Amino acid sequence: MSDRNARNRAPQRRPDPVRRVAYQVVRQVTAEGGYANLALNKALRDARLGGRDAAFCTELVHGTLRWQGTYDAFLARCVSRPLPDLDPELLDVLRLGAHQLLNMRVDSYAAVDEMVTLTRSELGQKRTGLVNAVLRKINQRSLDQWISTTAPRPNEDLLGYLGIAEAHPRWVIEAFDRALAGGSTREHASGERAVSAPGLEDLLVADNEPPRVTLVARPGLADVDELVDAGAVPARWSPYGAVLDGGGDPGRIGAVATGRAGVQDEGSQLVAIALASAKVDGDDANWLDLCAGPGGKSALLAALMEDGQLTAVEPLKHRAELVRQNLRAIPGNHKVLVGDGTKPTWPEGSFDRVLADVPCSGLGALRRRPEARWRRTPEDVEELRPLQEALLDSAITSARPGGVVAYVTCSPHPDETRAVVDAVLGRRDDATLEDARALFPGVPELGDGPDVQLWPHLHGTDAMYLALIRRS
């Protein structure tokens, strides 16, 4: 037998298992509408990947999804037909390869070779030639070189440039710029829209930084020192927060495993603390979380109550069960109701404090939801608006005279924040907007008020919004 025949009969090399897991997760997200964090966590457990392998797989998945639109702009210049005409599974392989070549410290030969091997295993031999050729073209330039040759010039089209250079859709950048400018649409004298709000580029850069794991020590059950002893460091603003600087599995910490502490972004902690800190005269024993799932804010509010009952409302049964799990360690007779917050089953004016953390586009959490920026559309924001207004209306009606309502979103989009508050208060004569900035002691750069917008680039939190409303 000749050496050539021996080589032909040799078994094909198996793909790298870590890259194969990453590819399968990306396919779940792009083809099946899955959520990257959920799909990835399950895949890592199923494949028993840990340590460096888990870290590599996480960066490959999140980075590929985060930079998807930018990589597509580069890839469109390397193939002979429009990207929509490519098989979706082939396009995902090319995106994974582009991320390794342009944004990870991976040897270029290994990156191309491994993606060709993965293609042969997952898609067949016929696709390997195209993958090899396209990735070799991608490797001919650095990320900065690709940006400079693909994106518009900043002085000609700043929106288009930032969209490519910082991997955000144009409409999202427009919304962020409006929010940073105080919600107004600014124009040049010529009528052309100005996109130059201070901090805009810093915000987009911060959105591309992987978020740290932030914990909350639920008052009365755990304290920050216990989390620090487990390897965390105190958070910047929240007196109950701590950060796992080196990453790792928070479930290994005893306080988290038993429900005495939880995983919760610091911005989410701050808006719950603000509601609990607002001045209320008279009775203060009945609190309501109108949109409770999955229950992180419910648990913090319940732990902050010195005495009384929290009622948590969630329309979906499986999310209501998550709320119950979050409340399991909190003392007190707290209730979880499965129901529609826009159709209260309780009398008007039943509660002293009400949290309305309404469903939103989630544009304030793009750091931890890498697929959301490409999945969400302006139509999503428009479609959510009636629900947001209905929930805020219901929250105000549920509060007693003198009680307070916190309207909260995890989105800085002006059409989901101040526009909703203005629309609802404009129809009512029994509620007023109060200055909430004093409820965030020590937190700088909160703007002109009376509402509060937190930012990843300024505060290191998700872009949480809070408006404090008092029923009169």
* Low-pLDDT sequence parts: 1-10, 185-194
Q: How would you name the CATH homologous superfamily of the largest domain? A: Vaccinia Virus protein VP39
CATH topology of the largest domain: Rossmann fold
Extended strand count: 12
Q: Helix/strand-derived class?
A: alpha/beta
Query: Percent of residues in helical segments?
Result: 40-55%
The number of helical elements comes to 21
Q: For this structure, what is the CATH class of the largest domain?
A: Alpha Beta
Name the CATH architecture of the largest domain: 3-Layer(aba) Sandwich
Terminal residue distance = 93 Å
What general outline do the C-alpha atoms trace?
globular
How many domains would you count in the coordinates? Answer: 4
Quick check: average pLDDT? 93
Task: Bin the strand percentage.
Answer: 5-15%
Taking Cα atoms only, what radius of gyration do you get, to the nearest Å? Answer: 25 Å
Largest sheet: 8 strands, mixed
Pfam families: Methyltr_RsmB-F, NusB
Binding site for S-adenosyl-L-methionine: 291-297, 314, 340, 357
Protein name: 16S rRNA (Cytosine967-C5)-methyltransferase
Family: Belongs to the class I-like SAM-binding methyltransferase superfamily. RsmB/NOP family.
Task: Characterise the protein shown here.
This is 16S rRNA (Cytosine967-C5)-methyltransferase. The protein has 4 domains: 3-144, NusB-like (N-utilizing Substance Protein B Homolog, Chain A, Orthogonal Bundle); 151-207, no CATH class; 213-263; 266-471, 3-Layer(aba) Sandwich (Rossmann fold), CATH 3.40.50.150. Helices cover 46% and strands 12% of the residues. It has 21 helices and 12 strands. The chain has helices at residues 3-9, 17-32, 36-47, 51-66, 68-75, 88-103, 108-123, 128-138, 143-150, 158-165, 170-180, 200-207, 224-229, 254-257, 266-277, 296-304, 317-327, 372-375, 378-398, 418-426, 456-459; strands at residues 213-217, 233-234, 241-244, 261-263, 286-289, 309-314, 335-338, 351-357, 399-409, 431-434, 452-453, 465-471. The protein is globular and about 75 Å long. The model is unreliable at 1-10 and 185-194 (pLDDT under 50).
